[in-house]
Amino acid sequence: MTTQGDWPIQEVARLTGTTSRTLRHYDAIGLLTPSRTAHGGTRCYDAAGLVRLQRILMLRDLGLGLQAIAEALDSDQDEAHALRAHLAWLESERRRITDQIGSVRTTIDTLTTKEALVPSRMFAGFDHTAYRGEVEQRWGKDAYRAGDAWWSGMTQDERAAFLAEQRSIAQAFADARAAGLAPDSDEVRAVTRRQHSWLSVSATATGQSGVTAEYFTGIGEMYVADPRFTAAYDWAGEGTAVFVRDAMAAYAREVL
To answer: Considering the domain boundaries, does residue 211 fall inside one?
Structure first.
């Protein structure tokens, strides 16, 4: 029987669309601990547990691995603050996706009726300036203007090559982690050097003096703290973002 503020594992699994086996695994790895164990060994969860589970499921939907989720949760103990930040990002993404859906539908209708394409309607939701407000808030208006000028001035092939290098570096980090190499090993340091060079391209283009040890370490921390950046590395393998952060911190200490 369910009591106020006390939900058994079977009901939690039903409400969230997950499985009791998954919840037991979260308990086993310390990601989500039940508030108590009832008679017969049934795990039960209180309100705080449900809030934590909601955050786990949202971060999982963003593509984060369990280790990265644990680190993200541990780095922000203020549940309400973390959820407000996540809600703001979700609402932003919903608006962007809604715009993209509308633009694609418009293109389909236009192709079907053989009308003339209208470029300004085709690319709603695909604008790289969608995060202008966030960039200006974090790093200032000058940083946004410089970054926007740099990105807009690149050719399509140059942009593709820049993004391809990031994915190649992410895969190299994932392979190194899978091979059991240490973040401060010589082999990983070579990959981290590529990461430093890759970041230096945009830093130099936007008028920065270079990628300092402090800046490099801070960017590495952001790869773990911000789910969007975590997903940019964990697609290559769960835990890659954490490995990248540790490798960048070691490189900053030993090289920069």
So the answer is: yes
